[in-house]
């Protein structure tokens, strides 16, 4: 998420390009981008696929082998329009967006009042302001999302006291409550059990996979008990920091004014090591979006006898530093650690994080390059990471509803198929595209749960809060 709350609130109260996408006909999204191709595309393409399948079947007196099925699939893919291939991928593989900020949009626009018939109808029919509503999720063939329950950093960001952080805890509870109320209002559309085992079942039943994520450990108010309570309420990942340091780790940025942060702990603090261990034990995914380079390396590689996270981690909404040199993005040496630890970077689509150049600004922040803020630039980040460390380690975390600007061609959740088609046009295979849209995130989620089960079976102790009993 971009710096808030003021920026987000001004964004939420203004017209948004997403409105131009409302009312899209599904048939429009199936058309090729190239009119000449549409005119010249022969009907024989379909006949080729049918003929190949018939030849394979007629040529074998036994059931078709796996090898021949793969040959047939590859030949058919060659002749099938990428838009139709994209739709087929999304039909059989859940697209799980790793970071969607619907809750903060609801708070800013509607003050969390979502029980009116007007709001429910707007969410259902696709006329809600912002980037996300149910109609556009369905139009975009979404398989679900990690719904961020964001709370802003405290005004006194360098005060880590329980008293200073208490409002952040209450803010988080409000956000969890409103998100769960949305999910519960549409039980036929949203899955209410946030675990990886039920995720594919929910997808096959037509429901959107719907775990939550907190965006900074300031939100737990220095309490492992709160972390566990949030887990019980559906939170399945916790970002270690937002744009402020906390008791547990260093952030990449600081606010007021927004700038690259100066180190406080030099990475993960002693308290942070204990909390990450508790997150591993609990089955809470560790998220490294927003954290400093030192924090990234500590968690992925360990430090001073500490092994780092026992479970794979994610970057829920970060992009490639080599393409856009922003402190929020992930450098190549960290990407290689991501591969070593079987972890995952979910690419953020904000123009600030995909299209920028270093201008030696005193803030340490780059300048946004408007002309490159496009869908193709998002694809460039995904393929860069995929080509560097493998497509098992890259996915999508758009930050929709948490960003002011969006890339041209990828304005809201209805455009997910456009992203998949663009990946295919860029040479990404169908199987790798399936990993990017959601299979990788499901794998990480399951592995985090497996580590949790192993730690509990081994008797790993619960992290108790160190507080004086009155």
Automatic annotation (TrEMBL):
<keyword id="KW-0378">Hydrolase</keyword>
<dbReference type="GO" id="GO:0070573">
    <property type="term" value="F:metallodipeptidase activity"/>
</dbReference>
<comment type="similarity">
    <text>Belongs to the metallo-dependent hydrolases superfamily. Peptidase M19 family.</text>
</comment>
<dbReference type="InterPro" id="IPR032466">
    <property type="entry name" value="Metal_Hydrolase"/>
</dbReference>
<dbReference type="Pfam" id="PF01244">
    <property type="entry name" value="Peptidase_M19"/>
</dbReference>
<keyword id="KW-0862">Zinc</keyword>
<keyword id="KW-0224">Dipeptidase</keyword>
<dbReference type="GO" id="GO:0006508">
    <property type="term" value="P:proteolysis"/>
</dbReference>
<dbReference type="GO" id="GO:0046872">
    <property type="term" value="F:metal ion binding"/>
</dbReference>
<keyword id="KW-0645">Protease</keyword>
<keyword id="KW-0482">Metalloprotease</keyword>
<protein>
    <recommendedName>
        <fullName>Dipeptidase</fullName>
        <ecNumber>3.4.13.19</ecNumber>
    </recommendedName>
</protein>
<dbReference type="InterPro" id="IPR008257">
    <property type="entry name" value="Pept_M19"/>
</dbReference>
<keyword id="KW-0479">Metal-binding</keyword>
